[in-house]
Amino acid sequence: MAELKTQLLKADEVHKAAELLAQGEVVAFPTETVYGLGANALDPQAVAKIFQAKGRPQDNPLIVHCTGVEQVEGFVKEIPEKALLLMERFWPGPLTLILPKGDAVPAVVTAGLDTVAVRVPDHPVALRLLRAVPFPIAAPSANLSGRPSPTRAEHVMHDLAGRIPAVLDGGETGFGVESTVLDCTVQPFRVLRPGGLTVEQLAELVEVSVEAPAVGTEPPRSPGMKYAHYAPEAEVFLVSGPGAAAKIQELSEGFLMKGQRVGVMTWEERAPLYPGLVVLPMGHQGDLAELASRLFHLLRQADELGLQVLFVEAVSEERLGLAIMNRLRKAAKGREIRT
What we know:
Layout: E1 7-9, H1 14-22, E2 27-29, E3 36-40, H2 44-54, E4 63-65, H3 69-73, H4 81-90, E5 95-100, H5 107-110, E6 115-119, H6 124-131, E7 137-139, H7 153-160, E8 166-168, E9 180-183, E10 189-193, H8 199-203, E11 208-209, E12 235-240, H9 244-257, E13 262-266, E14 278-281, H10 288-304, E15 309-313, H11 320-332, E16 336-338
Parallel strand pairs: 1-8, 2-8, 4-6, 5-9, 10-11, 12-15, 12-16, 13-14, 13-15
Antiparallel strand pairs: 2-3, 3-7, 4-7, 5-6, 9-10
Helix pairs in contact: 1-6, 10-11
C-alpha cells in the first residue's frame, strides 16, 4: 500500500478526526480499553481500509462503536430484555454485546455473519468523536494484526505510521485489555472473549456461560477467538504453579548459554528471584488491575529491549485475571508450563 503521512492529532482536535471519517478514511482513536482503528461502519469501502491497514483477515468481525442504546437500536433487529439490562448497567463501558444484525450493517463489518458486535466506549475523546459524526464507528484494535494491542498513541504510531491518515492522541488507556464480548443470541448468554468487565460482574445481573465454542473453518463470532494475537517477537513461555520461579531459572540457563537475551514478567516483589534476567515488573503482587493496564505495554517493551525469550508468571484466573490469562495464552502460542 502507498505510504501516507500520519498526523498525530491532539485530544482537542476531534473535529479533524471526524472530517477524515466523514471522507471515508480510517482514524485511530482512544477508548477506555485500547486504541481502536475506526471507520464509518455503514461504508463498506471505508471499512475495507481497516483490514488493509492492519493486515487483518476479512473473516474476523469488527466491533461497532455507538453513542448509546438509541443508536444501537437502528442497527440491530432486536435487543433482548436482559441485554437491555446490561446496557443500562454497564454502558458506557468495556462490554461488547453480540445481537442480531440489522440490514443497515454491511457484511464486511460482520464477516458475513447474521450478528453484529456493538458497544458504547467509556472514554471522553471516543464519545466526542462518535457524537461528531452521523454514523457508528467500526473499530478493531489499532495495531498490526497479531501484535500486542496498543494502549498508547506511540504504540499505534509504531505499528501504523505511514499506513493510516491520523492518530487521535488521548493519552494512555485505562483498562489495558479489550472489552468483554458477550453473545446475547444464545441462552444463557455466552462470554466469547473475557475482558475489562468480569464474568462475576455480569453474573450479578444475568446468567452467563464462559465456555467459548470451538472455532473451526467458520468465521469467528467475536474478535479475538480464531487468530494468533498479542505476540511480541520474543518466544513467550507462560509458567504457573508453586515451582514457577525455580522452573524459569532452570530453563533460562539453557537460553543464556546460547547467548540469547532472556526476560521475565513477574510481580515487583518477586524480581529479586531472577538475577541475570531482564525483569519486566507486572506491578504490586496480586494487583490485577495494575497488570491489565500495563500488560500490552510490557509485551511491546520486550521487543524494545531486544528480548529473544520471555518467561511470564501466570496469575489467578479470577475476575480480571481471566482476561489477562486469555491474552497471555495467546501470546505464548501454546507454550505453557505447569509446575
